[in-house]
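Summary for the steering committee. One of the milestones for this cycle was to obtain a three-dimensional model of the protein with pyridoxal-5'-phosphate bound, which we needed before selecting residues for the alanine scan. The sequence and ligand used are listed below.
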Amino acid sequence: MKAGFLKYQAQTSPYPLALEISHAKGSYIFDTNNKSYLDFVAGVSACTLGHSHPKVVNAIKNQADKYLHVMVYGEYAQQPAVELCKFIATHLPDPLESTYLVNSGTEAIEGALKLARRVTGRSQIIAAHNAYHGNTMGSLSLMDFEERKAPFRPLLPDISHITFNYEPHFKHITSKTAAVIVETIQGGAGFIEPKVNYLAKLKAKCEAVGALLILDEIQPGIGRTGKLFGFQNYNVIPDIVVTGKGLGGGLPIGAFTASKAHMDLLQDSPKLGHITTFGGNPLIAASALATLQEVVTSDLMAEALKKEQLIKKHLKHPLITEIRGRGLMLAAITTSAEVTNQVILESQNQGLILFWLLFEPKAIRITPPLTISNEEIIKGCGIIIDLLNKISDTK
Ligand SMILES: Cc1ncc(COP(=O)(O)O)c(C=O)c1O
């Protein structure tokens, strides 16, 4: 399988991990030799309820028995998508009521950018340094890493950057600004939380100049930080909230949500202001709805905060300088990128899945399924500590 993977399936990394997957269940992934791997990554924060959660699988199977795809987005009323959008509206504060479902996080970001331009009639978008919002042309334009952007230019014009958590940069937000977009918790940058009241002050500044605040909840959303949406930890209500990843319960999805008045603007001038064939797909919507229902009716959100403490307790080591993030969106920062690389690469041999963050080479990503048990957490942390001990011994 590996040879076919490398030959026929396009890669954008020269060194893919190339684990040959057989199946996955709960907190474990199994390879084709039936070796088990405890999953501390959850498909990069996507498998909220672990692998093949029975409620999610049943919802998908039930829907599959009824129908799959029938029509492009928004033409027919389909129960899974309607129920999903209603659920999201019910659990978001006013005026966030109307949701547009798409196929991925980056497409949801594109939709949010278009909506902000349509609402304000302005073009400037301000994003944060070290932010990651996806890899299609618009989302890529928001990134401030020239090395990653240069080969693909020209990208979107009129994008500028501010430093996350740095209020003096608010002066760059003016009456020319359509929107400011930030991740509620910066992901690729190293799981950096907003300072107290930073997001509320950012929203106030946006409001003062008539710009919109877009919060990218694609990674912090869906219970991972102890609240259904990460921003609910920080006393702020955005104009547009963007979700993805963990919303789908393991299937591909993206969504942007705004007030009905704003969202309705995509209906004219031009009409069909955003269109997509598969957005709101009933199988995916059924999976997302089952995931959300389980997250809000179980103790998983409260437990995410307890599990954070458990991880912090069991990940104490001289080679770990800091643990950043909140809930089950954590990054263990080691003393060097070399240490981090060794731990991540060797952990796979030890039956533990870890991964990197995009822009913080010293970070070990710890984003397990919310359903991970305390025993599994202790076991995984033990493997990391053993690896760090070995590295210390060889230094
Ligand atoms: C904060 C954030 N925004 C946007 C995206 C893009 O989502 P997708 O990969 O589904 O396009 C990601 C993916 O890692 C992300 O972490």
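Key point for the committee: The chain is about 35% helix and 15% strand.
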